Amino acid sequence: MGKGKLFYGYYMVTAGFTLHVIGFIIYGSYGVFFAPLLDEFGWTRAAISGALSFFMVMWGFFCIIVGSLNDRFGPRLTMTSCGLIWGLGCFLLSRVTAIWQLYLYYGVLVSLGMSSVDVLPLTTTARWFVKRRGTMTGIVKTGAGLGIMLAPLLANWLISGYGWRLAFLALGVIAVVFSVAIAQVLKRDPAKMGLLPYGQEAPPEIGKSESEGLSLRPALCTRRFWMLCVVYLVIAFCCDAILIHIVQYTRDMGFSAASAAGVLSTLGGASIAGRFLCGTACDKAGVKRMILACFVLLVIAFSWLLMSRELWMLYLFALVDGFAHGGLFTLISPWVANLFGLKAHGAILGTASFIGYAGGALGPLFFGFVFDVTGSYRLALTVGTVLCVSAIILSLFIRPIAKAKPVA
pTM for the full model? Predict the structure, then answer.
């Protein structure tokens, strides 16, 4: 890198941030489409939540594929292909007339686009930064928080002004234009440009490289990998269930659609702070300490929501839950690098995401089913609280392998 020239890794961070904004605008808006779909088709909450659950399963499955493709072919080709399919899925959603179409278009096509938005920028950022990896990952993931914050506002405006079908179409255009354009500047790792990762002062020794660490198959044979996956499952179960149901939860308490969207937007805004601050803090305090701290906040948030009766209490819940939500999802990628190195970071992160997102599939479905049966979310929230406490205990026993250098 020449003197005065901006390190190219920062372009990767900017690209990853923007992809997260776009991706999570589309993902985070699903809760706002919930009510129009209920009103027009009369489907049950469990059925509509089930489409999100199927989406999460397929998202996780595609994370394995996309992570491996990125390790092999690089992010530009992978992101371009996924972006085109992603846009097609949003276009077809605007033509939905049956519940199976919602599952196919959202659950398969849109999930493929989201898998590239999540895994691809994270593993690319990990390869470009040795020092400040947590901080850079946090900046990338703040895009997700911004997207979640903007999603209900943008979706509510589009649906109110143009109807839910044109709203889906508009989101599809945004997905294609931005994802394909951004893909053209992505580079898999610094070596492709004759550069070193940020913080690496000299070329690696012969026989060693930025790919030092475990490959996928040996990682799958370790107990800590499966412990990590269970923790990830709990994170996605709890956080995604709230993300999808908090709008309806707020409206069920008698508050307006605008107030409900405001609660979701607050959650997204708080997650921005959580993503950036937790990413930065893990460079100094350690990634596992920050994981534990975020889980404690999530337990507090769920307990508070069970007692909430006023709108201000819901906004306070959104602040605490959003901060923990953002922090937990940001810390997963540095944690994988900490535990297994970078040799197959994309494939390992993608596989862990598949297991973890099973929780994201079960969470919204479980919350919807509990409400349909009991008329309340109380039991679901109690189960979520117990799972978070269990994840805290399990996290205490997860330690890096000897041959994977700890990262902060």
Answer: 0.75
CA angle 62, 64, 70 (to 5 degrees): 95
Residue 287, CA distances (Å) to 133, 137, 291, 300 in order: 11, 12, 6, 20
Does the domain made of 9-186+212-395 have the CATH classification 1.20.1250.20? yes
Q: In the chain, what are the domain boundaries?
A: 9-186+212-395
Q: Are 176 and 22 in contact (CB under 8 A)?
A: no
Nearest residue to 316 via CA among 267, 359, 366, 371 = 267
Contact 345, 126 (CB under 8 A): yes
Helix, strand, coil percentages for the chain (3-state, nearest 5): 80, 0, 20
Whether 330 contacts 275, CB under 8 Å = yes
| Tokens of residue 7, six digits | 């390190």
pLDDT single digits (tens) 356-370: 877 877 888 888 889
Above 50 in pLDDT, residue 324? yes
Which of 174, 154, 149 has its CA nearest to residue 89? 174
